[in-house]
Write a structure and sequence with these properties.
7-stranded parallel beta sheet; 36% helix; 368 residues; binds 2-succinylbenzoate; binds magnesium ion
């Protein structure tokens, strides 16, 4: 296929509720939708994930725009591509900037699947007909409020509850949650809020049979994560530390992790995500699909990826209505009894809702 034209749309949407982590609070989600066209008029869609501020990784909305517009699109426009795996190779002269790369690569994957009259899940080699999902709950104003919110999502059927922790909002809160919900599959995500100096506190988490603790230490601390894992029974899951399959290999060899959170955006696209999935499967390490508070296009990509067989644990892909008054795709994504049904249509299997997209659009640039 020849990449004939691209349309980069810039959107801003407001989430129903602020999402609070150990780094701060966000309610505005500004992002890009990239639509790519082939020579026959087929089109594929990708969504960018970086936030306005660089608290999660170093990328931002503005760096995404700079990379996509000034470096990545010129590498692809009017080029012939036979398979989306070629895109990450074409992008190798550009260091990191994984979220920008994943936006473009995701659109090419959707286009490729549509051309081949396959669902994106099929094109990736996925098998599942429905996927099991959990929910990620941001830091709440009080433990009482948190208990209420958790109760609500258990009632809705979500298969696992993830709560955010930070120093001062950890052991006591987890203890109260465990007392209230003794059997619910529960995990905690620290977004790098601790150091090895906190080891005695982190060891106390072993009393609450958590499924795992996600990214307790800094993103470049895989040596310290290995030291911590030796003293913890609770499995460590790495999120921010993992940018590539090479990072996964090193973390597993060091003993820094027992579970991997795969985010398509963080690892630079679906091709690398699939490599990580395959490598972990070979090593007996389960994976699950993380989230970046995506709108519908990004969520649809997550669903397709999660159909691969080693996605053994529920991911963070909640239903559209959890975050949005209205999503940018139709139909919207719905969770029933903790499952999302994988769409059978070609590509991502959801239609971009142009009326909604145009309502939230700030501007757009066409490249041809
Ligand atoms: O650490 O997984 C994370 C949201 C923003 C940035 C980082 C993370 C998260 C979440 C929520 O936990 C994921 C989602 O529901 O999309
Ligand atoms: Mg995380």
């Amino acid at each position: 296929m020849i990449i004939k034209k691209m349309n980069l749309r810039h959107l801003k949407m407001t989430m129903k509720n602020p999402f609070v982590t150990s780094f701060g609070s966000m309610q505005e989600k500004e992002f890009f939708l990239l639509e790519v066209f082939d020579e026959d008029g087929n089109s594929g869609w990708g969504e960018s994930a970086a936030f306005q501020a660089p608290w999660y990784t170093e990328e931002t909305v503005q760096t995404t725009l700079h990379m996509i517009r000034d470096f990545l699109i010129p590498l692809l426009l009017n080029k012939e591509i036979n398979h989306p795996d070629e895109v990450s190779e074409i992008f190798t002269p550009i260091r990191k900037n994984n979220m920008a790369k994943a936006t473009v690569e995701g659109a090419i994957w959707d286009l490729y699947a549509k051309r081949n009259k396959q669902s994106l899940a099929q094109a990736l080699g996925g098998v599942a007909k429905k996927i099991e999902v959990g929910i990620s709950i941001g830091i709440q104003t009080s433990t009482e409020k948190l208990l209420e919110v958790v109760h609500h999502y258990i009632e809705e059927g979500y298969k696992r509850i993830k709560v955010k922790i930070r120093p001062g909002y950890d052991i006591e809160m987890i203890q109260k949650l465990r007392d209230a919900f003794p059997h619910v599959p529960l995990m905690a995500d620290a977004n790098s809020a601790y150091t090895l100096d906190d080891i005695e506190l982190l060891k106390k988490l072993d009393d609450y049979h958590l499924l795992m603790i996600e990214q307790p230490l800094a993103s470049d601390d895989i040596v310290d994560h290995a030291k911590l894992q030796k003293q913890l029974n609770t499995p460590i899951c790495l999120d921010e530390s993992i940018l590539s399959v090479e990072d996964v290999r090193k973390a597993i060899e060091l003993g820094s992790t027992k579970v991997i959170n795969i985010k398509i955006a963080r690892v630079g696209g679906l091709t690398e995500a699939k490599k990580i999935h395959d490598y972990c499967m070979e090593k007996g390490i389960p994976v699950w699909c993380g989230g970046m508070l995506e709108a519908g296009i990004g969520r649809a990509h997550n669903i397709a990826l999660t159909t691969l067989p080693n996605f053994a644990l529920p991911g963070d892909t909640a239903g559209s209505s959890h975050y949005w008054e209205e999503d940018i795709i139709s139909p919207e994504i719905v969770v029933v009894d903790g499952y999302i049904e994988v769409p059978k249509g070609y590509g991502i299997g959801f239609e971009p809702n142009m009326e909604v997209i145009e309502r939230y659009m700030l501007d757009s640039i066409v490249f041809e």
